[in-house]
Amino acid sequence: MASLDDARQYLLHAREVAHQITGPEVGFCPGGSVWVWDGQDPVEGGSWHHFESIAVDLNAALYLDPVKVDAVRHEAEVLMNAFPATGRRLESLEYCNADLVHEKIKTPDQVLLWACSIFNSCTPLPAGWRAGYSDKAVPGARDWAQHVFSTAQLVTDGFQVTHLTEKGRIAVLPVEEHMTVLYWAEPGSWYDDELGRLAATSDKDLVLGPEHPVSIAAYHG
Length: 221
Fold this sequence. Notes:
Elements: H1 4-22, E1 28-29, E2 34-38, E3 47-51, H2 66-82, H3 86-92, H4 108-115, E4 123-124, H5 146-152, E5 162-165, E6 168-174, E7 180-185, H6 190-199, E8 207-208, H7 213-220
Antiparallel strand pairs: 1-4, 2-3, 5-6, 6-7, 7-8
Helix pairs in contact: 2-4
């Protein structure tokens, strides 16, 4: 079973290797980050290229559907297979976890390790970057943060992540006994303030019970 320490090491290692590709000044986020090496590119004998896929948020990884995340992994594998020199190139940069792209994801632990790998956690952050989708870009998304929008695509079918409440927009994830845990709150909302209050205490999560209207809507629509 993977520990949080294992995941942190996967993440640090992935970003150390990615910095060899981009340079140390580039920041990264978990955005789906399939790096491939094109050995046929005549520019200095080859070149790196970055392709984005559905992002697996590290903070949501243990709550997601492994089958759906494995579909994301498989898409990355198909892309890697089209650039067969990539694996060897990653090995030359001393990346130790390149085989993850070929290992079927079946458990939450494997989802977490995938989320922390170079295939997900090393999307370069451009200058002026802002995570979010507008109504115009994605009708109905209502400016949900990018990681929320991606996570909503990767939870088990039938569970609703995003909710519009009288106290602000929130996103929740499933926990045991039909309860939900607050995953994201609209900045400046009551829920956002409540998260800040909890962060100042020993409590880290805001769990909504099975009778809470949001939990009922999340599981039953």
